[in-house]
What does this fold into?
Amino acid sequence: MKALQVYAGPAARERLRERGLQPGDVRAVPGAAGGPKGLALNGLDRFLFGHWLPRGMQRVHLLGASIGAWRLATACLPDPDAGFALLASDYIGQVYEHAPGRLPAARHVSELFAAKLMERFGGREAEVLAHPRYRLHVFTSRGVRALARDGRLRTPVGYLAAFAANAVSRRAMGGLLERVVFSDPRDPLPVPVHDYRTRSVALAAGNLRESILASCSIPFWLEAVTGIAGAPPGPYWDGGITDYHLHLDYAGAAASTADEPALVLYPHFQPTLVPGWLDKPLRRRHRASARLDNVVVLAPSAEWVATLPGGRIPDRGDFKRFGDDHAGRMRAWRVATAEGARLAEEFDALARRGPFDALPLP
It folds into this structure.
């Protein structure tokens, strides 16, 4: 049984058949939203950023939303292997006080998560932003018009309107939520983002933690983040709302640069890239597009996933499934995280092998 499946767009598949995959080939690494699902990729993250990508010399852009932003900020630390081990421990160990039968208060979750970001990144912001090769880009969703303020009634009504607008088109949803990307000021985001209403803000020591917190702030589970230094005013929510799996125009980036081969390496928990969080029920939007022509997706196989506790990778529904059995949830998540080492082992063997075939992106 194979744990790892490799999928690729047409140009990427041709490149893999010709020469395989080398660390120096990679120009960008996206990190999707998905909460606990990112734990399944922890072993792969540790290998890619702690051992494999450091063998290259080129600049690499890291694009993250939600837990993907947390993961890729961790990759910019001086010891990413140790940083990813702590990230997994932090995520698995989270416990929030709540009344019986009720969700934890959003303010309580936000406060504890902000404290954890302070513990891991406080005083280290300059290290993250001074990485000699990596350029971090944190994706967030900013409320405008009906969602320009967070409120007990205003926010649910605003998100109902956003859902209806998104059913018409993603561009229509831009009237209520805009993409705001906090980017390393040394280099702009190299991927065209004209598909959707977008703003860019320079990442700095004074807004790094707040932008990551905003990118992870799931509506109704966490409070919106406001008053981010250097950013337009308004409430900021999870970057996965506008860019759930960062289905961006990576091929357009390749066409506008002289770099070769400009591959995008995407460690992901599934083979498909869903554009926005509200697109999850709209399966017609899940299909691969020409924008992914140069993308290589590393995803766990269905057979491997079936061997994990419950036959699935960790997800946010586990909080409800396990309820107050925190020890049971943590045990299941630790097993899934540990088993993810197989993904790294198989990727290492594949990359060493030279030319290979990849599956077409579904």
Notes: Strands lie at 4-8, 26-31, 60-65, 134-143, 177-183, 198-202, 236-237, 263-267, 295-300, 359-360.
